[in-house]
Backbone:
């Protein structure tokens, strides 16, 4: 059946639903198409479920350390994985349900279930329905990349999606990929009680970060008993002889050439869900990796088609996808010329302690050759962290020597994912660091040491 709408939204990730609400609120008729679970990655297989499980892992770890605080639990700590999963499911599925309910009751909006495919630049097909609109918004997100490792076709493996079904304790979880997703799962499952090995082809973990950050995170993970195998060349996989486990060939410079485990998790990056959208029929351009090319307002090369969220390759986070929505409606409905380049990079890695990141790394600043100042403070000199018995990590900030603007920061420590926003907001204000330097923060907090750190800046040495 052919139906006409003012707008079609493909995908209910972090941009689509809010966009549908604003468009329908502005009086447009909107078709919303979802092929799987409402809420997409963040709600079902990404942020929400992983952070919910990380909370369980944190409690397990704190319970194990209870005697450090003078608290006796009187027995070994055990984790009930079925209960961990049930708690995760309740929170994640509740979010997805609420979202579906919101969309189904949205005025002027019609929900279609199924995979959308372009017929041409104004027509989309979903199952037996043909939908036509002058405005089409693509918010299809991405999925785990499965690399063509030797033997992978014959080896059972997990991804961030299938990990969500795990309600048992893997005896030994081997994680290929030492980046953000892999490291969160590594610490989580180690704390649940699994043996964990992280295999990384690079010479260090999360290699986009500064070396001191990578090293500190590796030390934190190793201190909990996680095995880290770096410089892993020619990674290969096969089933163990008994058929019940996996063997990963790592061919590292040091250590055993193979790691034998019970389960394998692939966490080596993500690819956009653009390969089966029929983009060629609408003549929408993508880059060589399949990301949809967009301009500063998330407009594709085809007038009337926008791409938002992970699928445009301009961000890989829930907050960047949501910001894409804000940019699109600001330009389309609010006469407000917001643009992608207004956005300052920021994200967190939810290991414990977490890493809060904004702006440039120290390494990136050095590459620009500009004169800069560096502030550094170990968490062991942050009273609040010491009192909490969680003083691993350090805080680091880089400031432009001429303007005094904060160029970037890496805070690895207690509550760093929250504390980093003090710096981020000053960066958005384009105010000099002295604004924070002179501010009086509450005692005892981690944030109270930001002014102190900024009062002890030293010249950044460029080798
Ligand atoms: C393990 C993990 C942990 C993460 N943790 C964090 C975190 O802590 N913080 C953070 O900011 N980000 C995190 N992310 C990233 C975050 O989940 C994504 O950046 C975020 O979900 C934005 O996605 P999106 O809006 O682009 O689309 P998605 O959320 O991926 O949603 C896309 C939707 O489109 C649907 N779809 C796809 N193709 C079609 C089609 N042809 N027709 C109809 N529907 C279709 C999909 O089913 C899906 O529902 C994490 C990711 C992973 C994998």
Residues:
């Amino acid at each position: 059946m052919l139906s006409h709408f003012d707008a079609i939204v493909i995908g209910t990730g972090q941009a689509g639903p809010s966009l549908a609400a604003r468009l329908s609120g502005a009086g447009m008729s909107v078709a919303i198409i979802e092929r799987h679970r409402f809420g997409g990655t963040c709600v079902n297989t990404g942020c929400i479920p992983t952070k919910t499980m990380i909370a369980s892992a944190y409690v397990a770890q704190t319970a194990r350390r209870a005697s450090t605080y003078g608290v006796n639990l009187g027995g070994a700590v055990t984790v009930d994985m079925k209960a961990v999963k049930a708690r995760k499911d309740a929170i994640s599925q509740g979010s997805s349900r609420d979202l579906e309910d919101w969309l189904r009751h949205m005025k002027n909006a019609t929900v279609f279930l199924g995979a959308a495919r372009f017929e041409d630049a104004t027509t989309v097909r979903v199952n037996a329905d043909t939908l036509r609109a002058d405005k089409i918004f693509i918010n299809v997100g991405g999925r785990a990349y499965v690399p063509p490792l030797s033997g992978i076709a014959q080896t059972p493996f997990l991804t961030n999606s299938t990990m969500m079904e795990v309600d048992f304790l893997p005896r030994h979880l081997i994680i290929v990929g030492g980046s953000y997703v892999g490291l969160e799962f590594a610490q989580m499952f180690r704390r649940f009680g699994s043996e964990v090995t992280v295999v990384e082809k690079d010479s260090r973990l999360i290699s986009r970060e500064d070396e001191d950050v990578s090293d500190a995170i590796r030390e934190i993970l190793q201190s909990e008993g996680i095995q880290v195998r770096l410089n892993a060349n020619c990674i290969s996989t096969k089933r163990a002889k008994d058929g019940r486990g996996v063997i990963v060939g790592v061919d590292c410079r040091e250590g055993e050439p193979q790691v034998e485990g019970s389960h394998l998790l692939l966490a080596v990056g993500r690819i956009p869900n653009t390969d089966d959208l029929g983009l060629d029929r609408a003549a929408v351009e993508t880059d060589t990796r399949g990301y949809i090319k967009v301009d500063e307002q998330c407009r594709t090369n085809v007038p009337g088609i926008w791409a938002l969220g992970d699928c445009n390759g301009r961000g890989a986070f829930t907050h960047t996808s949501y910001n894409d929505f804000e940019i699109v409606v600001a330009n389309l409905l609010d006469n407000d010329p917001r643009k992608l380049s207004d956005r300052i990079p920021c994200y967190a890695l939810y290991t414990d302690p977490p890493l809060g990141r904004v702006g440039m790394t120290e390494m990136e600043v050095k590459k620009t050759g500009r004169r800069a100042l560096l502030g550094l403070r170990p968490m062991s000199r942050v009273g609040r962290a010491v009192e909490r018995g969680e003083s691993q990590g350090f805080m680091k900030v880089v400031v432009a020597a001429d303007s005094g603007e904060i160029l970037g920061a890496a805070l690895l420590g207690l509550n760093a994912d929250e504390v980093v926003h003090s710096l981020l907001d000053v960066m958005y204000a384009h105010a000099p660091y002295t604004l924070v330097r002179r501010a009086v923060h509450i005692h005892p907090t981690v944030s109270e040491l930001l002014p102190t750190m900024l009062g002890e800046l030293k010249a950044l040495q460029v080798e």
